[in-house]
Specification:
CATH topology of chain A: ABC transporter involved in vitamin B12 uptake, BtuC
CATH architecture of chain B: Orthogonal Bundle
Number of domains of chain A: 1
Number of strands of chain B: 2
CATH topology of chain B: ABC transporter involved in vitamin B12 uptake, BtuC
Order of helices and strands of chain A: HHHHHHHHHHHHHHHH
Shape of chain A: globular
Largest sheet of chain A: none
Number of helices of chain B: 14
Oligomer: heterodimer
Helix content of chain A: over 70%
Largest sheet of chain B: 2 strands, antiparallel
Number of domains of chain B: 1
Number of strands of chain A: 0
Shape of chain B: globular
Radius of gyration of chain A: 23 Å
Structural class of chain A: mainly alpha
Strand order of the largest sheet of chain B: 1-2
Strand content of chain B: under 5%
Radius of gyration of chain B: 20 Å
C-alpha cells in the first residue's frame, strides 16, 4: 500500500517536473543563443519577464494574446488525446474568423442576435472544416496529419483572397483588410487601458467546459479511451467512427470559436494573414503538448508562452533581438518535453534502485508467488 | 495557349519538381526504415538558409552546397537520435523541429544580415546551368532552358537509390529494418544505427532540395520558403508506394501542381491559384487512398456482399 502511494506520488511529480525541467532547459538554450549573438542573457531575460508578466500594461497584452492561444490549445488537446493528430487548427480558426466577420459585417438585426449567430456560425465553420479531413480519413484512409496540414495553406490563401477582393475595405489602399464591425458588436473591455476583453473570460469558460465534457461525460470517456487504446475501446463497445467525427468536430468548433473571439474581441476586423502570422494555433498546440492535454496546464502554458512572445516583441524594440527568440525557446521546450527527459532520469534512478533491491532481497517475489 | 507558352510551362515543371523530388527521396528512405519523419520541411528550410548564408560570404557554389547539405544532415541526425534512440514521439519531434527551424532561420536572418523577410543580391551566385540544345531547336531549347546540374542529379539520385535498395545486400538490410525490426536485429544488423543513418540521409537529400530551392532559378532566401514542399513530398512518397522510380513520377505530378498554380496566375486571381497544389495534393491522396483501400480489402468487401 505504501509502495503504491509513493509510486503515484512519483508519477505526479514526474508529470509536473517534466515540463518544468524542459522549460528550464529551453530557457537555458535561449540564453545560450542570446549570449552567442552578443547579449547579456540575464539582463535580457529580466526585461523579457518584466515586459510580459510583471508590468501591468504588458500583462494585459499577454493575456489578450493568450485568449485565442488557450482555445487553440484546448482544440488541439481534444483531438490529440483521442489519437487524432489535428494539425489544422490554424485553418479551422481562419474559417471561424472569416465566417464571424462576414456575419458581423453583413447581417442585419439586433447586436445580441448578430453576435450569437456569428458565434454559432464560426463554430460550425471550424467544425465543418475539421470534418473534411476526418471524412477523407474515414473513407479513403488518408493520413489525417497530411490533410489537416494542407488545409491550413488552403484556408490561408482563400481567406487572403476574400479580404483582398470581395470583402476588402475599399477606403484602405495599402492593406488588405475588411471594414471594422459595428461598435455595438465589440466585446466589452475589462480594463480602461489595454485590449483585454471579455473574450478572455470566454476562453477560461471554454477550458472549464471542455474539462467537464472530457472528464464527466461518456463521450469524453469514450474519446479518451479510443486515444488510449483503440482496440480496447472498440472491444468495450465504443462506436469509434462516431466518436472520431464528434471529437474532430468539437476540436474544430473550439478552433472556430477562437477565430470568432479574436475577430469580435480584439481585432474587430479581418486583415490578410492575421491569424497565420501571429502563430496562435501553433503556440496553442505547443502549450497543449507541454501541458500533456490537461486543460488547466494548457491554460498555464498558453499564458506563459504568450508572455514569452510579448516579451520577445519588447526585446525587438529595446535590444534589437528578433522576436523569434520567443518561438525558439517555446519550440525547444517542446522538443525537450518530447524526449521525456524527466522520465529518462526517473527511470535511470529507479533501475538502479530495483537492481540493488534484487541483489539484497531476492526471495520476496518468490514468496508472493507462492 | 501558344506552344511557346506550353514549352515554358514544361520548363517550369522541371524546375519545380527538383526540390520536391529530393525531399520525396528523403521521405522514402525514412518510410523504408519505418521512421515517420515530418521534419522534412525544416530540413529543407535550414539547408536553404545555410546555403544562402555561405553563398553571401564566399560566393562559392561548392561551399554553399556543402553547407546546405551539412545543415540538412545535422537536423536529420538530431531527428533520428530523438526518434530512434530517445524514443520521442515522431509527431512532437517533427512539429517542434519545423517550428524551431522556421523561427531560428528568421532569427539568424536578422542577426547575420540585419534584414527581415528575404535575402538576395550582393553578387550571390546561382548553380551552374547544364549545356543546352542550340537555339535552332526551339522546342528542346525552351524545355531545357536554365536547368541546373542539380535538376539532372535529382533523377540520377532516384535511380541510384533504386539500385542501392533493390539490387544490393546493404539495401535489403535497410528495407528489412522497416519490415521487421526485431527479426533484423536478431540477424545481427545494427537496427538503430541503420534507422538513424537513413534519417540523416533524408536530411542530406532534403538539403540538396533546399539548395535547389534557393539557388536554382533565382538566388534568394525567403522566410518559410519551403512552403509545405516537405509535406507534399510525404504525400508524393506515399503516392509512389515508397518506390524510388515511382517517386520520380509522383514528384513530377506535384511539380506540375506547383508550376500550374504559378502559370494560371495570369488567368485566375493569384491567391486562389496558390492554393491549387494543396487542393490537388488532398484530392490525389484521397483518390489513391480510396483505390488502395478498396484493393487491399477487396476480399472482405466481396465477402460482406455475398453474406
Amino acid at each position: 500500500m505504501k509502495r503504491k502511494d509513493t509510486g503515484r506520488l512519483a508519477a505526479l511529480l514526474n508529470t509536473v517536473s517534466l515540463p518544468v525541467i524542459a522549460t528550464i532547459l529551453g530557457l537555458l538554450l535561449g540564453a545560450l543563443i542570446m549570449f552567442l549573438s552578443g547579449h547579456d542573457p540575464l539582463k535580457v531575460y529580466s526585461v523579457m519577464f518584466d515586459k510580459s508578466f510583471i508590468n501591468v500594461n504588458y500583462l494585459n497584452q499577454t493575456l489578450t494574446k493568450a485568449t485565442p492561444v488557450i482555445m487553440c490549445g484546448i482544440s488541439g488537446a481534444v483531438a490529440w488525446r483521442a489519437g487524432h493528430i489535428n494539425l489544422g487548427i490554424e485553418g479551422q480558426m481562419v474559417c471561424g474568423g472569416i465566417t464571424a466577420i462576414i456575419i458581423g459585417l453583413y447581417m442585419p438585426g439586433p447586436a445580441f442576435l448578430v453576435t450569437l449567430c456569428a458565434c454559432i456560425g464560426a463554430c460550425a465553420a471550424g467544425a465543418l472544416y475539421a470534418l473534411i479531413p476526418t471524412f477523407l480519413q474515414d473513407k479513403s484512409h488518408v493520413s489525417l496529419i497530411m490533410v489537416t496540414l494542407m488545409m491550413n495553406y488552403i484556408a490561408n490563401y482563400l481567406s487572403t483572397y476574400l479580404v483582398s477582393f470581395p470583402l476588402k475595405d475599399t477606403s484602405s489602399v495599402n492593406a488588405n483588410q475588411t471594414m471594422f464591425i459595428d461598435d455595438s458588436l465589440k466585446f466589452t473591455r475589462l480594463f480602461s487601458n489595454g485590449q483585454l476583453s471579455t473574450g478572455f473570460i470566454l476562453s477560461i469558460m471554454t477550458v472549464i467546459a471542455v474539462y467537464l465534457v472530457m472528464n464527466y461525460t461518456s463521450f469524453g470517456y469514450e474519446s479518451k479511451m479510443s486515444g488510449f487504446n483503440p482496440y480496447f475501446a472498440k472491444y468495450g463497445g465504443v462506436r469509434e467512427r462516431r466518436v472520431m467525427y464528434l471529437t474532430m468536430a468539437l476540436s474544430g468548433a473550439v478552433a472556430g470559436f477562437a477565430g470568432f473571439v479574436e475577430v469580435f474581441g480584439t481585432k474587430y476586423r479581418y486583415s490578410s494573414n492575421m491569424i497565420a502570422s501571429s502563430g496562435y494555433a501553433w503556440t496553442g498546440l505547443m502549450a497543449s503538448l507541454v501541458g500533456q492535454y490537461n486543460p488547466f496546464a494548457i491554460l498555464f502554458y498558453s499564458i506563459f508562452f504568450s508572455g514569452l512572445t510579448i516579451g520577445g516583441q519588447a526585446l525587438q524594440r529595446d535590444f534589437g533581438i528578433p522576436l523569434q527568440i520567443a518561438d525558439i525557446i517555446t519550440s525547444s521546450i517542446m522538443l525537450f518535453v518530447s524526449i521525456n527527459i524527466g522520465i529518462h532520469l526517473f527511470k535511470a534512478g529507479r533501475k538502479q534502485r530495483t537492481e540493488k533491491k534484487e541483489e539484497t532481497g531476492n526471495k520476496t517475489p518468490a514468496k508472493e508467488a507462492a | 495557349m501558344t506552344s511557346a507558352y506550353l514549352i515554358s510551362i514544361i520548363n517550369s515543371i522541371l524546375r519545380m519538381t527538383t526540390p520536391i523530388l529530393f525531399a520525396t527521396l528523403g521521405c522514402l528512405l525514412c518510410n523504408k526504415v519505418n521512421v515517420f519523419n515530418i521534419a522534412l520541411e525544416g530540413q529543407m528550410l535550414i539547408a536553404a538558409f545555410a546555403a544562402i548564408s555561405v553563398n553571401y560570404y564566399t560566393h562559392s557554389i561548392p561551399l554553399s552546397m556543402l553547407a546546405g547539405v551539412a545543415a540538412g544532415g545535422i537536423v536529420g541526425f538530431i531527428v533520428g537520435i530523438f526518434q530512434v534512440k530517445l524514443k520521442a514521439k515522431d509527431m512532437i519531434v517533427g512539429t517542434s523541429m519545423n517550428l524551431l527551424v522556421s523561427s531560428f532561420t528568421s532569427y539568424m536572418l536578422y542577426i547575420l544580415f540585419a534584414t527581415r523577410g528575404s535575402l538576395t543580391g550582393n553578387g550571390m551566385v546561382g548553380l551552374h546551368k547544364i549545356p543546352n540544345f542550340p537555339e535552332s531547336m526551339p522546342v528542346l531549347y525552351g524545355m531545357f532552358k536554365n536547368l541546373t546540374y542539380l535538376d539532372v542529379f535529382g533523377y540520377i539520385t532516384a535511380v541510384l537509390i533504386f539500385i542501392f535498395l533493390y539490387r544490393t545486400v546493404p539495401g535489403f538490410h535497410v528495407m528489412s529494418v522497416g519490415l521487421n525490426k526485431e527479426a533484423t536485429r536478431s540477424l545481427g544488423t545494427k537496427v538503430d544505427l541503420t534507422q538513424i543513418l537513413a534519417v540523416t540521409m533524408s536530411g542530406i537529400l532534403c538539403g540538396l532540395g533546399g539548395v535547389a530551392l534557393c539557388m536554382g532559378n533565382v538566388v534568394i532566401f525567403t522566410e518559410g520558403m519551403s512552403a509545405g514542399r516537405g509535406y507534399m513530398a510525404m504525400a508524393a512518397s506515399s503516392l509512389a508506394g515508397a518506390h524510388p522510380l515511382g517517386a520520380i513520377l509522383s514528384s513530377l505530378f506535384f511539380g506540375t501542381a506547383v508550376a500550374s498554380s504559378i502559370a494560371l496566375q495570369s488567368y485566375i486571381n493569384g491567391q486562389i491559384t496558390l492554393s491549387f497544389p494543396y487542393i490537388m495534393t488532398i484530392l490525389i491522396m484521397a483518390v489513391s487512398g480510396y483505390i488502395k483501400y478498396r484493393r487491399e480489402n477487396r476480399h472482405h468487401i466481396r465477402k460482406g456482399k455475398t453474406k
